[in-house]
């Protein structure tokens, strides 16, 4: 091996996967793992059929049903005929092309970005793609993971490779340790608040610093999950002992000597000490407070002890205009205390916050309210990220804590994060949501979304408003 | 994919920043297994006054009579942010757009546009501002010349650039899968060297 100049983790992952960098062509990268679901794959399969092309490595692709499915029933047609058509098409396509599918009610079924890690399909040092922008989640393992369009899904099916232009690199260091009660969701929302919703467009970001190293794998997934929400192509966290301990023994993870060799290789992935990044952003962990979005993009976020901003607070004309539009859509008045905002819906779930630790955190807050119920006028649903998460939560009695307090305990799926099934908000509804996007109409036409942590969502369900849990 | 050479068309100005893919094509219209049927739902929540999409919103810029037949979308910064749904460029294309011009695009959306043959053009903020002013005052028709990377309008002209291979692919309507399949031996050689855990 030739000596090279100091490299970032991204550059190492890139180099390790570079199949060909031919003159005049976009570099060709190898794809180790491909996750697919019912919404963004059917047209790719149709094109394979049209060209009479096989899936080159069906064993490198795993399919799950997640986006469209009902959270009330495992029946394939429970969320409408359109959804059922896509789900049936996925089942036929997987059968015809030899792809393993976790279909309705399968013990491994769940949101792609929840099941990949929990089954050991997600490994450090790999490239993972999926026709879904929150594929960045898997970067928590030191995997280069990103969302792709349907034409690219087809390209991966047929060739097990993808053409990608090299991104710029950004280091985001969170120094020191966060205060008590501050979650991974608060960390990533604070980062997005600092960079703005397009601050990392064109970059792959690497999160580092003591506050990041201290996170569990599930917390790291929450951070990386929202990389796309400030424009990043992917988010990365260097794999360490926390990562290796999590991966070891998982169903699809390598075993024995192969695992031992993998760990040796994975330890070399971290950015070299003197590697240079195209941009560096630093946050001080102890300054991060609980976060709530007030606007219609994830960058429009503020601490829960703050007030709704005024257009006058922004000097940039585009941000000023965005603030005016957001306040109108969100029906908020500048100067309102965030803790005075009343919600009528609560959603705890999504690939951002539906893992067992998220549910434990939410249940912990419910217990702090000692027997209080979800306040009158609020509907609150809990949607576990997978059947494994659901089973684990039930074995710990979390479902009972929630249902006793008046929450609805649902079946796994993407659910109200994007509302492709029947979990949709009505016009004018205001929702405390643990998901990742507060775009206009995201959870239903005319509905208003506030992105928060599972702890904050649970408190909002009990009290009917946002709460500064740390005062 | 169809070849893209030059295109002359009417500009419709959508002067909003951060237009996300949920606005371009809301999720309830993604439940299709075909690549067609999305154009009618483009910008649904802004374009129609009602949920069913039966009442056209006369105030939404695309619905204004002076922009009827527009094939070039002039957009605000960070256009196409959000999800990876290729349904967004499909919807824009099926509506009749051939070119999208903005000061910046979200990465995945930009790549998706190239892959479906919809030309995304980045210009500077000052140039975008100039075009917004022109298109507000008059019906602006632009000639987009991909081989020469040039947009012209009377005396005015704007240079743009594309990645070399993307430019080649658009101009020649390259079947990208077929192109890569021609390199199967190189891919197999790479696979032979991969570690066991990979």
| Count of beta strands of chain B | 7
- Globally, the shape of chain A reads globular
Query: Strand order within the widest sheet of chain B?
Result: 4-3-2-1-5-6-7
What structural class results from the helix and strand content of chain B?
alpha/beta
**What is the strand tally of chain A?**
19
Going across the major beta sheet of chain A, what is the strand order?
A: 5-4-3-6-7
* Major sheet summary line of chain B: 7 strands, mixed
Q: What is the residue-mean pLDDT of chain A, rounded to a whole number?
A: 97
Count of DSSP H/I helices of chain A: 15
Order of helices and strands of chain B: EHHEHEHEHEEEHHH
Taken from the alpha-carbon principal axes, the silhouette of chain B is: globular
What does this structure look like?
- The complex is a heterodimer of chains A (471) and B (198).
- With 471 residues, chain A is an alpha/beta fold.
- Helices cover 32% and strands 16% of the residues of chain A.
- Chain A is built from 15 helices and 19 strands.
- Chain A starts with 8 loop residues before the first helix and ends in an 8-residue tail after the last helix.
- With 198 residues, chain B is an alpha/beta fold.
- Helix content of chain B is 32%, strand content 17%.
- Chain B contains eight helices and seven strands; from the N terminus they run E-H-H-E-H-E-H-E-H-E-E-E-H-H-H.
- Chain B has a seven-stranded mixed β-sheet.
- The longest helix of chain B is centred in the middle third of the chain and has 13 residues, at 125-137.
- The chains are: A alpha/beta (471), B alpha/beta (198).
- At the A-B interface, helix 2, helix 3, helix 5, helix 10 and helix 11 of A face helix 4, helix 6, helix 7 and helix 8 of B.
């Amino acid at each position: 091996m030739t000596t090279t100049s100091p490299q970032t983790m991204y550059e190492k992952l890139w180099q390790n996967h570079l199949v060909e960098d031919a003159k005049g062509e976009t570099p060709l990268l190898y794809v180790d793992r491909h996750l697919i679901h019912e919404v963004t794959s059917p047209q790719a399969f149709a094109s394979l059929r049209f060209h009479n092309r096989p899936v080159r490595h069906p064993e490198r692709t795993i399919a799950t049903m997640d986006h469209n499915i009902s959270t009330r029933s495992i029946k394939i047609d429970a969320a409408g005929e359109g959804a059922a058509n896509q789900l049936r098409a996925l089942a036929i396509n997987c059968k015809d092309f030899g792809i393993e599918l976790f279909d309705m009610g399968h013990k491994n079924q769940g949101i792609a970005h929840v099941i990949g890690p929990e089954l050991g399909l997600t490994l450090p040092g790999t490239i993972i793609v999926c026709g879904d922008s929150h594929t960045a989640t898997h970067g928590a393992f030191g995997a280069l993971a990103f969302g792709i369009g349907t034409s690219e899904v087809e390209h991966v099916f047929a060739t097990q490779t993808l053409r990608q232009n090299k991104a710029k690199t950004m280091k985001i260091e969170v120094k020191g340790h966060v205060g008590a009660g501050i979650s991974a969701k608060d960390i990533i929302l604070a980062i997005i608040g600092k960079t703005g919703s397009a601050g990392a467009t064109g970059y792959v970001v690497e999160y580092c610093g003591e506050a990041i190293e201290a996170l569990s794998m599930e917390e790291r997934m929450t951070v990386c999950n929202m990389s796309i929400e400030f424009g990043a192509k992917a988010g990365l966290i260097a794999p360490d002992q926390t990562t290796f301990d999590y991966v070891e023994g998982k169903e699809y993870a390598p075993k024995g000597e192969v695992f031992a060799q993998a760990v040796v290789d994975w330890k070399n992935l971290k950015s070299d000490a003197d590697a240079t990044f195209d941009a560096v952003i630093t946050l001080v962990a102890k300054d991060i407070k609980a976060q709530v979005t007030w606007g219609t993009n994830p960058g429009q976020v503020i601490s829960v002890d703050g007030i709704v901003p005024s257009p006058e607070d922004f000097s940039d004309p585009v941000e000023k205009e965005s603030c005016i539009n957001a306040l109108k859509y969100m029906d908020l008045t500048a100067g309102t205390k965030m803790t005075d905002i009343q919600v009528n819906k609560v959603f705890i779930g999504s690939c951002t916050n539906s893992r067992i630790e998220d549910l434990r955190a939410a249940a912990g807050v419910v217990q702090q309210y000692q027997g209080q119920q979800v306040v009158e006028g609020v509907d609150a649903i809990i949607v576990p990220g997978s059947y494994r998460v659901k089973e684990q939560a039930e074995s710990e009695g979390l479902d009972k804590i929630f249902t006793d307090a008046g929450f609805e305990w649902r079946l796994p799926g993407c659910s109200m994060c994007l509302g492709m099934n029947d979990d949709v908000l009505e016009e004018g509804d205001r929702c405390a949501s643990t998901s990742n996007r507060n775009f206009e109409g995201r959870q239903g036409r005319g509905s208003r979304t506030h992105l928060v942590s599972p702890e904050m969502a649970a408190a909002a369900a009990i009290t009917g408003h946002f709460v500064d849990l740390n005062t | 994919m169809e070849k893209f050479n030059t295109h002359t068309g009417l500009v419709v100005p959508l002067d909003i920043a951060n237009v996300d893919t949920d606005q371009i094509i809301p999720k309830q219209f993604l439940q299709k297994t075909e690549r067609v049927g999305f154009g009618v739902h483009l910008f649904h929540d802004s374009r129609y006054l009602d949920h069913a999409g039966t009442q056209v919103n006369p105030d939404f810029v695309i619905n204004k009579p002076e922009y009827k037949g527009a094939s070039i979308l002039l957009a605000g910064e960070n256009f196409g942010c959000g999800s990876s749904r290729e349904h967004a460029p499909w919807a824009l294309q099926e509506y009749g757009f051939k070119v999208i011009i903005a000061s910046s695009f979200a990465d995945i959306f930009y790549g998706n546009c190239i892959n479906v043959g919809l030309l995304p053009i980045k210009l500077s903020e000052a140039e975008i501002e100039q075009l917004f002013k022109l298109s507000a005052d008059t019906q602006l028709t632009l000639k987009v010349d991909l081989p020469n990377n040039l947009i012209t309008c009377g005396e005015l002209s704007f240079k743009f650039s594309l990645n070399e291979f993307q430019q080649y692919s658009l101009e020649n309507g390259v079947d990208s899968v077929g192109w890569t399949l021609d390199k199967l031996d190189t891919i197999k050689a790479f696979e032979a060297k991969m570690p066991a855990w990979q």
